User: Fold DUF6311 domain-containing protein from Plantactinospora alkalitolerans.
Amino acid sequence: MTLAEPRLETTPDPEGPESGGRTATGTERGAAQPAGSDAGPGTGSAATPGTGPAADSEAASRSGAAIEDPGTPDRNSGAPTARPARWPTWRRDLAVYAFFLVAAFWVTSQIWLDPAGRVASLYSSDPAQVQYFLAHSVRVVLHGEFPFFTDRLNYPDGVNLMANTAILGLGIPMVPLTLLFGPAVSFVTLVTLGLAGTASAWYYVISRHLVKAPVAAIVGGWFCGFSPALLSHANWHPNIISQFLLPFIVWRVMVLTRSTRVIRDGVILALLVSYQAFINEEILLFTAMACGIFLFAVVVQQPGRWRAAWRPLAGGLAVCAVLAGALLAYPLLVQFAGRQAYHGLSDAVRDYGNDLAAFFVPGSTTLGGNQRANLDLAPNYSEENAFFGWSLALLTVAIVVWLRREVIIRALAVTGLLFAVLSLGERISWWNRGAFWGPWDVLVKAPLLDAVVPTRFGLITTVVIGLLLALATDRAWALEIAERRTLRTVVAAALAIALVPILPLPLREIGRPPVPTFITSGQWRPFVGPEQTLVPVPIPAMGHTNGMRWAASTNLDFKIPGGYFLAPRNGNTGDPGRFGGRPSGLSAVLDDVAKTGRPATLTDRQRRRAMDELRHWRAAILVLPVRQDNVEALHRTVDQIAGPAQRRADVWVWDVRPLTDRTAG
Assistant:
């Protein structure tokens, strides 16, 4: 099966008309193969590619000329009835891309009101982490810092950035914008472009290589880019929603099955894979698994295809493996064997899975969604990786039943169903009741898969549904019946019933504390030396990431201890992963005070341990914003360790340099 030959490869089995499809004619088969394509011999095309009326129309469209549609013959006179000229392809494409971009601005509109002052209403740690990584990209470009590891976070142990999705593939292109407007603006820009870019990329590939009807490609691209799953991740994970390379990776894998230029096609795939690795490796792994399962499902149905496809596929993948392996060898060595590498995810996310009911209710960020009702159906609101709603779930089943004779439909159905099952995690439940064994309980122990968040397998099911919607719309649009207008009205109504409940709403945002003037004005600089740290109060950790935002606002000009990231437990390279660095007694005390609002009464032993930790961090100053929640309790607690604070601008400052100097007794 190749995406580049939709009419030839997706025709129904010649077993009867009940499939609801139609058999491609020789002319259609020839027109379906675009001129200059990579198809080689053995495609079975009945006409020479790039010739005939369809190719002429395509050439006219690409040149910018409007295409005059002769229309259908008049029933009385037999003369064709004139239809309005269609838009050239490039104009239609620009209009679609603009529509997707406007939709993305609508979704992110609440953040655009004040990028630095607004954040997701829940789980604000991830945006702060992404902004920190964006600032790291600035230092890579301007200061030549090592891209895959930093000790400016979690000082002195540092953080393995290759093991933490540092989004270098997104951050480095955004460096000019980050320098001009700051990492908060870069963050919301990435979210906006991630949604619009993913939808546009899928539209492009679907329209060129899978369907003929433009409306079908628009439907497929829209769902792949603005599905409930991507809307869920949009507030927190621009690396996950930036899937604009995936449709091209899938397309190039399919091209390899019939390639006559194996080296060239393998190189192209290797470059795409290598770049995607610097955006998100987990999504890349999912895509590779999905391509393998899809191709296997095709070959099982039509074993004869394997004889023609295995040589170019194997050769192209070998070229891809060699080149991508060479490009990624050192980064992957750092990731899996370098300093602060870890093996396996934190127990906190290892068993993240979807509830079965999550496939039948709308997402929290959609028109028909109910955030409270969805509370126990996903690990949290940033991981709603299904949430299609009953109407879309039923429509998907109906599409598979209707077009079941088509090889591509059956292969997609198998792929989507398998990933849906894997997304349920180690235990399967229904409306948070029951806990039956799931297959992920075995697979979670496999290499590479032990670092996967299982609920995210639902992202592949999402793409499969988008492709099924596109194919079904295309098939319905092409049916030759007398009441074609009525049929298209019915199709549009069915799509509306399925998609309107999951239309996107603007992401929910709340205000967040501004970066203190003490930081933005540079008043901290006389206190902190190059090998010293500025210690925010509370200590940076999951749930306390404002200090990471402070550092990001200065392009990481000062180092901080702690932070929000993945690292080996207890700081021992090779251990299982956990969120944050090695445990800290001072961090735990201040975290408890920040939550309860009650000052701690420290023992002599706790004070000595706190001073030892400050010396280990080479702390220069501790900084507490005067508008911090429970500021008085935190102030009184830190006073017991470092003595009275000084008021500087909008913060309290404890100068601990005399206490942490390693030459002091």
